[in-house]
Amino acid sequence: MNLEAFVLGCGGMMPLPNRHLTSVLLRREGELFLFDGGEGTQVSLRKLNLRWKKISAIFVSHTHADHVTGLPGILMLSSQVDRDDPLYIIGPPKTAEYIETSRKVLDMYINYEIIVKEITEPGVVYEGDGFRVRAFPLRHTRICMGYVFEEDGRPGQFHPEKAEQLGVPRGPLWSKLQSGETVLSSGGTEVRPEDVLGEPRSGRKFSYVTDTLAFPEISGEVEGSDLLICEGMFEKELEESAREKKHMTAEQAARIALEARVRKLALIHYSPRYTEFNLKRLLKEAQDVFPETVLTRDRSIFPIEYID
User: Fold this and answer.
1) Where are the transmembrane segments (predicted)?
2) Which of 75, 86, 141, 156 has its CA 20 to 30 A from that of 115?
3) Binding-site residue positions
4) Closest CA to 236 of 276, 196, 281, 202
């Protein structure tokens, strides 16, 4: 089952000619999940030829303009196709007010159900087949949430030679064992899944953190992520400015990634003061702490693979 992250916009504060505002889309097989929707989101959707009508849920970090101004366009875009399933929009307080006001003022034609859920406490905010999305609080100038997308664990690797030794013939019984059922061997004895499977294997984990001070608890929330997309808005020499604005530096993001033992860190939400050339300074400061760091660019694609 494929899992991919598409960066639709990597910029913060204001859009630049080659840098839309922050937005990330996660695709799991045919289902899509949008994290924030800054200005320019639907432009990148179009350029990547992503099927926006497959967006099941939108997760809003907070209601600052550079994270939500692209959402009205997404809502209207979705009315251009037949849609039977509701669209969930999940975010902190003020999310419902923003969506409802936008619909009213713009007199939107919406031909599908929109369900807005405001987060009142940390924890699981959305669940699907084999996965869940968990929200946790960040520290910004207004209520802001980080998100973790986690898949369920998988059974251990199936060992056909063990099944054959225990008298389970090739066929449907093998599938039952792999799905966790106990079966009867050809001799009538019970064979349990653990008799033929290796150690349980983990699912995949994606985390999204932006617009926050750096603080220790973030590492625990995103621990073990296969991909952490995290703001790296400023370089180290502007750490005091970052603190005043309740943002973090690229180096601080890297320290979180290191402490959380993530597999890859992708920086996002850059200050517009940084040109494409001097973004390299952010990257170097982060890689000095956590070598598996990359810069996101608009329309970057990150496949998220199983470890095993």
Assistant:
1) none
2) 141
3) 62, 64, 66-67, 140, 211, 269
4) 281
- At residue 267, the pLDDT reads 98
- Give me the mean pLDDT over the 265-276 stretch: 95
Length of the chain: 308
Q: Where along the chain do the CATH 3.60.15.10 domains lie?
A: 3-154+201-303
Beta bridge partners of 115: 88
Query: Could you tell me which residues are annotated as the binding site for Zn(2+)?
Result: 62, 64, 66-67, 140, 211, 269
The rounded mean pLDDT for the chain is 93
The CATH number corresponding to 3-154+201-303 among 3.60.15.10, 3.40.50.2300, 3.40.50.790, 3.40.50.1950 equals 3.60.15.10
Which residue would you say has higher pLDDT here, 123 or 49? 123
| 297: CB partners within 8 A, 6+ apart | 7, 10
Q: What is the pTM of this model?
A: 0.90
Largest CA distance in the chain: 73
Task: Answer yes or no: 66 catalytic.
Answer: yes
With a cut of 90, say whether residue 78 has pLDDT above it. Answer: no
Q: Estimate the crossing angle of helix 71-78 against helix 95-105, to 10 degrees.
A: 60
Between the alpha carbon of residue 225 and those of residues 47, 114, 180, 206, 218, the distances in Å are 28, 30, 26, 6, 12
Q: How far apart are CA 134 and CA 221, in angstroms?
A: 9
Burial 236-251 (b: 16+ CB within 10 A, else e): eebbeebeebebbbbb
Catalytic member of 36, 66, 226, 298 = 66
- pLDDT of 258 above 90: yes
Q: What angle do CA 259, 247, 5 make, to 5 degrees?
A: 65
